[in-house]
Design brief:
Largest sheet: 3 strands, antiparallel
Distance between the termini: 58 Å
Radius of gyration: 19 Å
Helix content: over 70%
Mean pLDDT: 88
Order of helices and strands: HEHHHHHHEEHHH
Strand order of the largest sheet: 1-2-3
Number of domains: 2
Strand content: under 5%
Amino acid sequence: MTSVHHQHAPGYRAIRWNMDWVTRPLFGLALAAVAIGVLFSAPPFFAALVVAISIAAAWEWHRMVSKGRLYHFEAAVNAVSIALAVTSMLVTRQIWIPLIVLAAGAGVAWKLAQGRHIHPVWQAIGILYLGLPALALVALRAFEPRGAMVIVGMFLIVWATDSGALIFGNLIGGPRMAPVLSPSKTWAGTIGGSVTAALIFAAFIWFLGGSAWQAGLFGLLFSVTAHAGDLFESFVKRRFGIKDSGAMIPGHGGVLDRMDSTLAAALAMALLVFLAGFNPLFGVAA
């Protein structure tokens, strides 16, 4: 039987002090500072950071979808595939070679996992799930003239969405958005996260001299990608009966738990910029 208690989150009445109040923002700010600092260095350094984070996430992904069974071969294939794909894109400045590398890696992972009967489809999906956003981030930084600022804006939308959802969801509670996929997510948190993203991104573009209202509308709409990325990882964790993808980052869980929204947002942003010719800086002077 479904009860009102299960359909609604309790809100501020259920808030209790715990160390996540300290560790989550502290490590979140530290990670953000590192990401922004490396972002404005040379593109190969940013690419190296993206690859390193993707490899850490790959080990979490393959452990998660293997349910603790042997997963090291598939994780190693993922790591090598992402490193080769990113390197080949930087060297050749082409996208088809990296895509072939990722497709080949997914095929190898599928074949390895099939032989041991450990979810071959999910093992193959992991290479594309992590590899395509890695290519998207590196391409934005290396090949888009104002790529660093585009990525900063995207980061702000994602971080504002996640933070706003956490704050408003905990304070307001109320109806859960997708209890089957992610029981902790509420409509209040989802809407609050999107509104927060709109305000933060509008302020960012206004500060740079662009159109604040256009940026606000874009931030509101683009925040959907962050929500979608979060929901997808929540679905996978529930599918395999896991609460956190890992415990590498205090207050945040694993690398995947920290990067799930960014993975979807990075891919969406790259498609908008490179395929649609969209300018997400809304009149900011070069």
